[in-house]
């Protein structure tokens, strides 16, 4: 897709959809599985391979490309508003460093055990956040996206819901929401817990019950268990690398690692509170010493045996992220060049996954078998 085409598509979609009349959300009585293709395609941070992540433009483009779900990462402002950013540190994805009026907000903080310097959402009101503009996180790999720096503001979760409902009207199909709660333990420690606020917003917008087109995800455990007690919406346990532990488990001193949670017994424990698991894709097909795909593990079959769906992350089309065997053969800007993501995706489809997160959702949509969606009426 050429840059000028991308810009016009995104601008027209966002202007048109934001101001159209939202449709009603599917009720709990709607047969959930009839609304979506298989495997599910989740627009990771929207269509972040084409447009700066976590913007209304990115989410709109993901839906236009056929994504079943759009995925906003959620953090909180000082006045308790949920906004979409991958991290609570704003320096990588906004122009805050160029704003002299906020220079005094620069802080050094410990977030999930990591020392981080920058500007943090919890030190800004929503009104202040709305003065910032989004920028591309990985401009060296996605220079085309960087040409859209400054084109979009930072959306609230409610604005994303409004956009999705409008897109459902224009696309005449169900589009799901797949929010991730970021840094749950940290935000609780500073008096800004997100879980109840998230549930209140979702329920208030008609997303209730296990058939609603929503998954709530987290890398932590305790907040998902808490969520299970206050909502019937589907929950997904994310998995970081095997030696690591969820931060809430570090704080409580349990010693539980993601590797422990990936064993057959560990997956059975996860199934007590979660409907699905979201592992790093290496849990399913690790890479060998030459950075090629290795042998398929038993993770998918073990998860299915525990009655868990499997939605791995993250599928990206640039050579930088792909197995060596699927790299395109170029000598200039090799890391930014687009390789054969479809081939990698097909390997995971063949491994039996139930869905995936992708920065370029159009590619998995084209790769999976054709299917018939049930239209909204």
From TrEMBL:
Domain of life: Eukaryota
GO MF, one example: glycerophosphodiester phosphodiesterase activity
UniProt keyword Metal-binding, yes or no: no
Biological process according to GO: glycerol metabolic process; lipid metabolic process
UniProt keyword annotation of Metal-binding present: no
Domain GP-PDE, chain residue ranges per copy: 39-368
Enzyme class name: hydrolase
EC number: 3.1.4.46
PROSITE patterns linked to this entry: GP_PDE
Reactions accelerated catalytically: a sn-glycero-3-phosphodiester + H2O = an alcohol + sn-glycerol 3-phosphate + H(+)
Signal peptide span: 1-20
Keywords: Glycerol metabolism, Hydrolase, Signal
Family affiliation: Belongs to the glycerophosphoryl diester phosphodiesterase family.
Cross-referenced PANTHER family: GLYCEROPHOSPHODIESTER PHOSPHODIESTERASE GDPD5-RELATED, GLYCEROPHOSPHORYL DIESTER PHOSPHODIESTERASE
Protein name: glycerophosphodiester phosphodiesterase
Organism in which the protein naturally occurs: Heliothis virescens
């Amino acid at each position: 897709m050429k840059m000028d085409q991308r810009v016009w598509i995104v601008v027209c979609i966002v202007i048109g959809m934001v101001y159209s009349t939202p449709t009603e959300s599917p009720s709990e009585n709607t047969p959930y599985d009839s609304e979506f293709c298989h495997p599910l395609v989740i627009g990771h941070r929207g269509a972040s391979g084409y447009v700066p992540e976590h913007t209304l433009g990115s989410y709109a483009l993901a839906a236009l490309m056929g994504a079943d779900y759009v995925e906003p990462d959620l953090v909180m402002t000082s006045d308790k508003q949920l906004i979409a950013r991958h991290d609570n540190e704003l320096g990588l994805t906004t122009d805050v460093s160029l704003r002299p009026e906020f220079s005094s907000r620069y802080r050094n903080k410990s977030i999930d055990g990591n020392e981080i310097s920058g500007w943090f959402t919890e030190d800004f009101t929503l009104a202040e956040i709305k003065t910032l503009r989004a920028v591309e996180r990985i401009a060296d790999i996605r220079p085309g996206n960087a040409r859209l720096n400054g084109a979009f503001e930072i959306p609230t979760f409610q604005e994303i819901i409004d956009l999705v409902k409008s897109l459902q009207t224009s696309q005449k199909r169900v589009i799901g929401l797949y929010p991730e709660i970021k840094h749950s333990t940290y935000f609780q420690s500073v008096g800004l817990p997100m879980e109840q606020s998230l549930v209140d917003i979702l329920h208030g917008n008609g997303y209730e019950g296990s058939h609603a087109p929503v998954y709530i995800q987290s890398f932590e455990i305790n907040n998902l268990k808490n969520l299970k007690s206050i909502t019937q919406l589907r929950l997904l346990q994310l998995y970081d690398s095997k030696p690591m532990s969820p931060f809430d488990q570090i704080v409580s001193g349990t010693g539980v690692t993601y590797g422990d949670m990936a064993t057959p017994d560990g997956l059975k424990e996860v199934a007590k509170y979660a409907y699905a698991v979201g592992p790093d894709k290496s849990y399913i097909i690790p890479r060998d010493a030459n950075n090629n795909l290795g042998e398929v593990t038993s993770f998918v079959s073990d998860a299915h045996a525990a009655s868990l769906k499997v939605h791995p992350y993250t599928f990206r089309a640039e050579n930088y992220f792909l197995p060596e065997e699927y790299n395109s053969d170029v000598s200039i800007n090799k890391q930014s060049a687009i390789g054969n993501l479809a081939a990698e995706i097909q390997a995971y489809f063949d491994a039996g996954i139930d869905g995936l997160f992708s920065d370029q959702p159009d590619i998995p949509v084209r790769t999976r078998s054709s299917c018939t969606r049930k239209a909204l009426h």
